[in-house]
Each structure stands twice: as C-alpha cells, then as structure tokens.
Design brief:
heterodimer; A: 310 residues; flat; B: alpha+beta; 5-stranded mixed beta sheet; 18 helices
C-alpha cells in the first residue's frame, strides 16, 4: 500500500513537471505582450521592466530559473498585480475556491447518489421521469445561466420578502455560500445522477443480487449493501476529476457572485498575459488535480474489496 | 443496455425507499455540519462581506461596489480608473480639483508660479495618517521614484514638463539633476523644462502625489499592495483591503481639511465586474450606485429608476494606419471613408445608449478654452456626408494605388457586444456606400494592443481618456513623437502647433494652435472621430454631494453626505 502510494506520488511529480514545462513554453509563445498596456512606454522603461521580471534572458534560461524557484516553492511576481507575489495570491484566494468547491462537490456527490438511487428505485414512474428531465436540463444548461438566473431569483425573493433572505453577492458567511455552491455543483450533480441511475440498474440484474434475493436477504439490506455500495463505484471514479473541474471551473460563479476565489485569477491571467499568475495557478491546480486522482484511487480500495493497491 | 433493464417495472420496495430517505437525511445533516464549519472558518478569516445596506444612517456609511480590483495603489505606477478613484479619495497632491472642476489648494497652501517654474508653500498642518508631517521631500521622493526607469511607471511622461525629467526617465541623466528641490520642509521649488501653461493642472494627477520615503522603504518593495503598506494624506484612509473582495475607506481624522469630509466611511463591499450582478445589488438596496450598459439599461427602465448620465470624458475614434506600406496611407481612400462617416447615425441608431454624444473633434465638448468652453470658441470642422464625392475620391484612390478593386480593409476591434455592434455597422456601411470589403479582426485587449503597436491593421477602434483638465491631454495625441499614436500619423504642421500649445503661456495662442490641430486632423483624415462617451447609471438619491467628473477621481465621494430625509 505505502509502496503503491509512493509510486503514484512519483508519477504525480513527473506529471506536474510535464504540465509546468508545456505551460511555460506555450505561454511564452502566446500572442500578446505581457508588458503592453494602455499607455505606451519608452524603450528604456521597457528594458528595465523586462530585466526586473527576467524577460530579457533567453526563454530556455528563463525556464531553468523558473523551475529552480518553483522547486523552492516560489512562484514569482504577478505582472498585473505588481508588488504581489503569486504565492500570496494563491494563499489568499485558493481557500475561498476550495470552500466553494468542497460544498459544491458535496452537494453534487450526495445529490447525485441520492437522486440516482431514487430514480433507479422508482424507475419508469413519475419521480424517475421528473428527475431525469431535470437532469437533462442540468447537464445542458451552462453554469453561467444558472448563476445569473439564481441571482435574479434571489433578488426577487429578497424584494418579495422585504428583508434579506440570502445575500445577492459577496462572501463571508454561510448565507453567502449556499446558492453559489448549489449553482456550481448543479451540472456535476446532474451528471452523477445519470451515472448512478445507470449503474444501479445494471446491478439490479446482476448475479449477486439475484443470489442474495434467493437466499432471502431482506430487500432493504440488498438495496443498501449490495446495490448501493456497488453502484457508487463509478461515481467515485469520476469524483476525482470533478473535484478539480469544480474548483477550477468556479470562474463564472465567482464572477457573478463577487466571490474572491482563485478561479478569476486563473482565467483573467491568460487574457492579461500575466506569466507569473498563469504559471503559478496552472502548476498549483495541476498538482491539486493529480493529488485528487491519487486520493480517489486510494478511496477506491476502501470501498471496493476487489481492488487491491499493489 | 439500459433499454433491457427499463422494461421491468417492479413494485417499489418501501423499505428500500426508507433506507434511501435515511441516507438522505444523514447526508443532509453532514452537509449542514460541513456548511456550519466552513462558514465558521470563513467568517473568522478576513474575506468576509459585511451585510450592510446601501446607505447606513447610524454609521454614516455609504456602501458601493468596485468594478475591478486595483492592481496596486502605488501612485507612481497606478494607471487604471479604479486606482485613480481610490487614490483620489485617500491621497492629495499639491492641488486638487474642486466640486466644479476648478483647481483648489491641496497640500500646497499657496504658490507663486512664473514662466519657468514655481514655488509651492506647503501647509504645515498636513499630516500622513501615521502622524508624520507631509513635507516637500515627500514630493521630491515620489517624483524621482516615478521617473526612476526601474519603477517602470507608464505615467512617467506626465512628469516630463519638469526640468530633466525625460532624461532621467530614459536613464540618461542623474536623478539628482531633476528640476525640483525642497528648500525646506514646507517649501518646494519646481523648475520647468520650458514654460508649461497647464503645469498646475497636472499637479492634481496621482503621479504627482507625495510619498513618504521612510514609509516607502519600510514596505520592502510592497508599497501599495495592501492596506497596511500605505499611509494616507487625503480625506479618507483605507482601513481594510481584502483582495478581490472588498475595500473599506474611513474618514482620515488627521486630514487637514477634515471638516469638509461628511461621510464617516465608504465601504466598497463588493468587487464585481458583472454589470448585471452589480445592478442586482442595487435592486436589493445593497449599494448606492450602479453603472448601466446596453444590456441592463432596459431593466432599469422597467423598474422606473431614475437614469442619470454624465460625460465620462473619453473620446472614441477610428484610428487609421498611416504606415507607408498600408493602403490607408492613401489620402483619397481616407477621404472617401470620411465622406460617408456619420457619427450621429452611429450614436443614435447603432449604439443607442443614452449619454453618448456624436463626435466631431478630438477635443471633447467639456474642455475649457480661453474664457469659456473650447468647442464654443473653436467649433472645429464637421463631418458632412457626401456619397457622390466619396465615390469620386475612391476612384482616385484606386487609380493612385493602381488596382481595380481594394483588398479588404482590416478593422481591428475589441471582442465585446458594443465593439461588435460598431464593427458590423462599419462593415455594412463601407460595403454599401463604397463597395469596400472589411475584414473584422476581433481581439482581446492585450492582443489588440500588440497589433496596434506593430501596425497589423488598417483601421482600429480606439479611445482616449483625459488625464488632466487641459486641451493638451488630447492635443498631443497625434504628434509624430507620441508613442500612443499607434497609427503613426506624422504631420510636421501638427507637430509644430502642438509644440506651440505646449510651450506658450498665452492662452489665445495656445487655443488657436489647438484649433489648427483639430482642423488639420480633419482635413488630412488622420482619424475618424466616433463619439464622446457618456456613462449612464442609477444611484441612491439619499446620497448627496457626489461629483461625477470627466477628469480625475470619479465618482467623487470626498464631499458626499447622507440626506437625513429623502426629499429633494
């Protein structure tokens, strides 16, 4: 087990190094000048800026400098938010994205499993049909629509109620988190519901369920021990990448609800050619994703007795 | 696979349903606990939004939203509107703009100005928010820092009227040679490169703000990055700055003119770029002001909110590429485009946003001239549509260029709804009236800027906002040596008149030179002026005394107050 984890971690490090390298060179070939802004500056000022940010050196040399600093845990300076280190930006804003992401993934995970199990239990009856309709909606409507509609609904509710039921935007309390997390988790929840339903229905007709029935195991026990536990496996598999998807995909939701998360930096940095932030956030999120996938694999062994980590 | 299973509709097992409900309840309980835990963590951290109303009588606070996070609040390097607005509330230069855009004393109590410079007498009761006095040295230090090539200030150029400033900024001269000197703690002497009639107006600009040297050095390169890394000499001070979340200003109790500050706090409780979300906050009485755009204007109208507007000072124009290898270097082609150019149609039929004014001159209507408004005194040329003449010029252009048909014109533009509307309008206009094909090159800001600099366009939609309240803030834009002249327009006569307006101290001579410039830019079709931008917004009527400006800090809450009763 420990050997397996160590081996996976080593693989992870190589993956992250690969991500960093590819990002570095692709980024340096992006069209657009990281130092250009509204007002043109003189040659001399430009040269000084380049020297300060290390852009005057050949790209390969910049790469080695960057890698050396990165191994030492230093992601360098932001080009746009001058005077702020990328490490500080990640430190300040990742916790916010993470909290939003955890809530969204819990909503999506639990919701997906429950609704999926419910639809399987009531298959072809009205709860199944109703939920599946909603699922199709959830999968096909992009999150920025949910975000906008969700916020508009809050405005209407607050104005009708005459007091603030839930805040329209901002961050800081439980009340601020609820709707953004729901909006963020909705798409994944819909996807997981479908996955769970299919997997439940497959298992109903499997041999071990039939055997259990024949042995006279109570239905409730078959449902929870045999069906649910087995059906949850594929859901867990996609949960890992979903976690990363949700924490990194929070950009739209963060934008609409004014949440100070890292997602905004991640997206805006690319538009602004902010090399420091592009590299910092990409490597950070890359490492995060790799870690999540490893965690899910370990979790797999806990849930499924057939899986052995060797 | 799923089909095979779906055929079976077995009776629902009630005990399984119960089991599921139980799991559901456990899940819900877990979720609530998790929510509580995360909520507790967050509310204990800094990034928490106070849930106050737009106007709070008890605490005498106005709550607002910022459209973007200021990149940093170091006055030597600030370039964007939001930074300028925040610095204007928290810092003060030698002079500042009063409620009617007139210059009023700031850190300088009085001044003697002469052709080649001036002496500024600083008020002795001015303090930084940490208690140390504001001295003449703070100005010298700030200006030298902004000019230091290592600072990389984009606004270094605004200090160039000071003697040797340009040379220092280009790294060719010793910073000690800068034409400014602290005679004593409260006397600042400035020597100019050449007579500059508008020098006093520059002094209200953020790059001219003072910086306390010992404090600056104590921040170890982090000056302006956090609320703790700043001290203030203006009406307000920043007490809390949570990056990308909120920024809170409170009255600066040691500001020399503290009695003029009526509000106890301005709480920028939200940083939101989404215009709809901002309007949602206004709709629920969370913020006192929200900007409108063409998309959410409709909603504001439906709600019967009073829509207000003001001229935000900027002028938008089509900048033409004059590089010799471009077809747009051909005068007759440009003239043909000009003869079908109709700013009124663009403003009233295409953009359809209240507040915008059809453009005629590079000098907007609000600029001052000799005694009154510049454009009242020097109306300048007008665009007159004449399609027949346009086609004649086009024919001449074709002959001169030696082609039967023009290659498509590349129109470089932004990638947003307003830009798209405009680009498509011009594409249709030029196709219909002149048979010229237009290729729209939509690019995000940085890429557009790069193409503008390298000259990969025939025509580019551009704009310019004023830095100070003088014709020169627009006047030198198309001088051949101006780096912001991205179309590389070069006209010796324009250069000559710009030089006159820069160095002359005779107002009539200056304004006449500028009048010549607007005429020359028109006659030579250097650019095509589109419109002067208006900004439309809704605001809480209980907040009075807010100044909206075309130049400088906008919106200005430094003298705002909350009306106790909602009348009037």
């Amino acid at each position: 087990m420990i050997r397996y984890v160590l081996w996976r971690l080593l693989q992870g490090v190589i993956t992250v190094w690969f991500i960093a390298t590819v990002t570095f060179f692709v980024m340096h070939n992006l069209p657009g000048d990281p130092l250009a802004d509204d007002k043109a500056v003189s040659e001399k000022i430009r040269e000084n800026l380049e020297a300060k940010l290390g852009l005057d050196k050949p790209v390969v040399q910049q790469y080695f400098i960057y890698m050396r600093n990165m191994v030492g845990g230093d992601f360098g300076l932001s080009f746009v938010h001058e005077n702020r280190r990328v490490n500080e930006i990640i430190r300040d804003h990742f916790p916010v994205s993470a909290i939003l992401g955890i809530l969204a993934i819990v909503i999506a995970g639990f919701g997906g499993i429950l609704w999926g199990a419910l639809t399987a239990l009531y298959r072809n009856r009205w709860p199944d049909i109703a939920i599946i309709l909603l699922v199709i909606l959830g999968i096909s409507v992009p999150s920025f629509v949910f975000a906008t509609v969700g916020q508009l609904a809050l405005v209407t509710i607050n104005n009708l109620a005459g007091f603030e039921v839930l805040p329209v935007a901002g961050w800081g309390t439980v009340a601020h988190m609820l709707i953004p997390a729901l909006v963020l988790g909705l798409g994944t929840m819909a996807f997981l519901t479908r996955l769970m339903r299919t997997s439940m229905l497959e298992i109903v007709s499997s041999d071990f369920v039939r055997t259990a029935k024949a042995k006279g195991v109570p239905m409730a026990q078959i449902f929870s021990r045999h069906q649910l536990r087995n059906a949850v496996l594929p859901v867990v598999t996609v949960l890992g990448p979903s976690i990363a998807g949700i924490t990194t995909g929070g950009f739209v939701v963060e934008n609409v609800f004014g949440i100070p998360g890292l997602g905004r930096y991640f997206v805006l940095a690319v538009q602004q050619n902010d090399y420091g932030v592009i590299m910092g956030t990409t490597v950070f999120y890359g490492a995060f994703l790799v870690l999540m996938v490893i965690l899910v694999d370990i979790l797999y062994a806990v849930i499924d007795p057939r899986v052995r980590l060797e | 696979m799923a089909d095979a299973i779906q055929g079976t509709t077995a009776p629902v097992n009630v005990s399984s349903a119960w089991q599921l409900t139980k799991y559901g309840l456990i899940g819900l309980l877990f979720f609530i606990l998790l929510l509580a835990a995360l909520g507790w963590i967050t509310s204990n951290s800094a990034a928490s939004t106070r849930s106050s109303q737009a106007v709070d009588f008890a605490t005498n606070t106005v709550t607002l939203a910022l459209s973007t996070e200021p990149p940093q609040l170091d006055s030597t390097r600030a370039t964007d509107m939001v930074s300028g607005m925040l610095l204007g509330h928290t810092m003060e230069g030698l002079l500042r703009y009063g409620p009617n855009n007139e210059l009023i004393p700031g850190m300088a109590e009085s001044w003697d100005i002469h052709e080649n410079g001036g002496t500024f007498h600083l008020r002795q009761d001015a303090l930084w928010s940490n208690g140390s006095p504001v001295t003449a040295h703070d100005f010298v230090f700030a200006w030298k820092t902004a000019l230091d090539p290592d600072t990389g200030s984009q606004y270094a150029f605004i200090l160039f009227p000071i003697k040797n400033a340009r040379g220092i900024s280009e790294g060719e001269m010793d910073p000690e040679t800068l034409g400014t000197k602290a005679i004593d703690d409260f006397t600042l002497e400035v020597e100019l490169e050449q007579p500059t009639a508008y020098f006093l107006k520059l002094l209200a600009f953020p790059t001219y703000y003072p910086i306390n040297e010992s404090f600056y050095l104590s921040t170890d390169g982090g000056y302006g990055s956090e609320a703790e890394n700043l001290i203030y000499n203006g009406p307000f001070k920043i007490v809390k700055w949570v990056h990308d979340a909120s920024l809170r200003l409170e009255k600066n109790e040691v500001y020399w003119n503290r009695d003029a500050t009526k509000l106890d706090a301005i709480d920028y409780a939200y940083i939101l770029s989404d215009a709809n979300a901002t309007l949602n906050l206004f709709a629920t009485n969370k913020i006192a002001l929200a900007g409108l755009n063409s998309e959410n204007l409709e909603r504001a109208l439906k709600n019967r909110w009073r829509i207000k507007q003001h001229n935000d000072g900027s002028v938008f124009f089509l900048e033409i590429n004059h590089r010799p290898d471009r077809i747009t270097a051909n005068y007759n082609l440009r003239r043909a485009l000009q003869l079908v150019h109709n700013p009124s149609e663009l403003v009233y039929k295409v953009l359809k946003l209240p507040g915008n004014l059809p453009g005629e001159s590079i000098f907007p209507v609000w600029l001052n001239g000799v005694d009154g408004l510049f454009r009242d005194e020097y109306p300048g040329p007008k665009y007159i549509v004449n399609e027949e003449k346009a086609r004649e010029h086009l024919a001449m252009a074709l002959e001169e260029l030696g082609v039967d048909e023009l290659p498509p014109l590349v129109l470089l533009a932004g990638d947003n709804p307003v830009s798209n509307k405009q680009s498509e309008y011009y594409q249709r206009l030029w196709k219909e009236k002149l048979g010229i094909e237009v290729k729209i090159d939509k690019q995000i800001f940085k890429l557009r800027l790069e193409k503008m600099t390298t000259g990969e366009f025939d025509i580019v939609a551009a704009g310019w906002g004023p830095d100070y309240h003088d014709v020169m803030t627009f006047g030198d834009l198309f001088a051949s040596w101006n780096l912001n002249n991205r179309g590389r327009y070069a006209n010796e006569e324009v250069d000559r008149h710009v030089a006159i307006a820069q160095s002359s101290s005779d107002p009539v001579e200056r304004m006449e030179a500028m009048d010549r410039v607007q005429q020359l830019l028109h006659d030579d079709v250097a650019i095509l002026i589109q419109y002067e931008r208006g900004s439309v917004y809704v605001s809480d009527d209980r907040v009075k005394g807010v100044t909206r400006r075309a130049v400088g800090l906008d919106p200005d809450y430094t003298r705002a107050y909350i009306a106790r009763d909602s009348e009037g």
